[in-house]
Amino acid sequence: MNRKLQFRVSFSALAMLLVAAIFLAACGAPAAPPPQAPQVVKETVVVPQTVVAQQTVVAEKTVVVPQTVVAQQTVVVEPTAAPNPEAVIPNVEPNAEITLWTFWLSPTFDDYIKSTIARFQKAYPGVKVNWEDHQATFQDDLKNAFAAGKAPDVINLSVSEGWVSDYATKGLLLPLDDKVSQDVKDLYFPGLWNEQLVDGKNYQFPWYQGLSVELVNMKIYSDTAGLKLEDFPKTVDGLPALCKTIKEKTGTLCDIRLTTNDLLSQMVYEGGVKVISEDGKTFTFDSPEGVAWLQMYVDMVKAGTVDKSVLVTDQDRVGLDLFSSGNAAFYQTGPNLIREVRANNPGLYGYLAAVPAPVGKSGVLGKGLMSLSVKNDTKFPNASLALAQFFTNPQSMLEFSKQVAIYPSTPKSYEDPFFAAKPIAIEDSAKPIAKDIISKYADIVPTIPHKADVNDIVLQAVQAALFNNVPAQQALTDAVTKANALLAQ
Amino acid sequence: MTKKLNLTPYLFLAPALLVIGVFILYPIFAVVYYSFTDFNIVTPPVWTGLKNYTQLFQDDVFWLALRNSFIYLLVTPILIILCILLAIAVNRKLPGINAFRAIYYVPVISGSIAVGYAWRMLFDTNGLINGVLLSAGLLQEPIQWLAEPALTLPLAMSLTIWLGLGFYMMIFLAGLQNIPEELYDAALIDGCNAFQKHWNVSLPGLRPQIVFVAVISSLAAIEVFNEIYTLTGGLGGILNSGVTMVFYLWKQAFRLQHAGYASALAIVLLVITLLFSVFNIRSLERGSEQD
Prior knowledge:
- The complex is a heterodimer.
- By secondary structure, chain A is α+β, with helices and mostly antiparallel strands.
- Chain A has helices spanning about 5-25, 110-125, 140-150, 165-170, 180-185, 190-195, 220-225, 240-250, 265-270, 290-305, 310, 315-325, 340-345, 345-350, 380-390, 395-400, 415-420, 430-440, 450-465, 470-489, and strands at about 55, 60-65, 95-105, 130-135, 155-160, 205, 215, 330-335, 350-355, 370-375.
- Chain A has 20 helices and ten strands.
- Chain A has a five-stranded mixed β-sheet. Chain A has a three-stranded antiparallel β-sheet with strand order 8-7-9. Chain A has a two-stranded antiparallel sheet with strand order 1-2.
- Chain A starts with a helix and ends with a helix.
- Chain B is globular, with a radius of gyration of 24 Å.
């Protein structure tokens, strides 16, 4: 063989051997110790004079001194790290990598979410969290993700829109009651923990809560219509008379929205209607209470005192935009959305007032807003439970409340002086009474089979009564017949 | 002598065939399969046989959607007439005529969703339309345009016409420019006025374009979705007044999570569209043969 070629072959072989050696050395490096390895790595014992002692040094050596010992040794004890008080879920999988999806929180709350994740990772070292925020397409994205087997481990679901029971009834969420200790459950308001139950089981950690208030445009309500804020109706059945007065005095229509994707729920809270029999085999929303509830809205439409397109829209923003444009006297929403009014119409902000939202015949002020659930087939159940619980623990929720006008679902958070401080801006006006209201939240709607289909049937019936002169009783009775046919399938 | 198989053309076709296979053929076969199942997207489908089809033919909303879709076909003759008139109007050698042609084309490139939301704001109770009509004294009280069942379909059809004007106008304009000038000269010599000139020369000369526009605009009308969705806020209008076939299909699949039933709707829509297209083309071609 040619000398030059020989040299090249030998050199290449040596170079490859060197690279392989370096590679093996790197891979052969010992793995990092597990997060909670045994403690006491170094210990040096000081014995000033005569010592008759038997000492056991953990992890190093055992020193037995039977007689007189003159020795001098220095003791340095590294204290055992105390467990993180926020790490309440045990047996979190080491090196877990989990995904969190939130609903419409980015970019406004990017810093809050990232800092909470960083704090979580300190409490549960070794767990990696991938965060994604989804907005208008959240539901479609989530359904596609479930269909593709790539759903996130921890999911932000809306309790008020009924998403938790939607997914839980399909077996897609992890039931929490036997996965979480009683101490953890006791961190939350009981009414919020026991929401959206499916067959008596809970599938969600209650997250941030909202309060319903009536935002009032004082320019229309007080200056033009001459009404007093303290006379704003305390109950829902006072709204028709108010709308009539406002229409007569100002010419503006009321900005009231039906919850079109969950009318049964609205019937229960506002009308005190029993929507389904105890055995769950027959729908009963065509009762006198149901008819009375529907008739109230029919009368308002006939009197021409409500904006019809807002009444039946399924998008809260439509109603909020009407109010923000300064063309409505009041609108029911959460204080956290006052920032939208301020952004869209700064001139209106100075005319805003807020009063508690009217209560329905059920007497229950409302139900929860948002929650965090864990998907049923997650590879890291304990890590996922830990993340969901961490975001909903008192400390995390207190910090969130300081950023925006939402309220914690944990009683302990309200002990902070933040909630006792006198409100300055209208966004904070509900702070002093928030705990009292939220502690009374309860989900009083029973589990509804074929919920989406039944709600669609009810929506058609409501529209027929509102806009097609079908008597309310007939519309609801026809709807009950169709809904019962679904149960029979 | 055996013929040697030449693989080269197939290799050139392979990428396109792969794309067609994955994005067109596979979804069609999947939809046919799902139409015989109960499928809610998030859990695996369950075979139910013909249940979706029997349910479909007993569904009042399906027949309402079919009716609305056929009513929507009225945009086709309106578009043909308006676009021919526009094409005749801009087919002149006037200074700045190109600017007019461009202005008429702007809605085509504006995007139906953006335009739909803009129209929704225009026709809002407190929108510009009511504002102008109230200021002019033509209204005493604002009309809630988008909350009137009788107005949902006409508003959506108007939006479709407005969006399509520029596109079909360009097609007719190109057709007009292909008609020999001598035919118009001959018509002038024969004493035709402007109307007779266009009736006897332009229209027959535009027959191929009319057939083309009739077919594609009627298919687009049957398959309308964007205009209904944006104007009705995704609800299909009060009392389903704006629900069309594709909208109902979307609602069943993605709102109510009945993807199996929606697949059955899609198959029925496919058959209707095919029959309609064949009928459309045959009758228009028969008309040109008789000429």
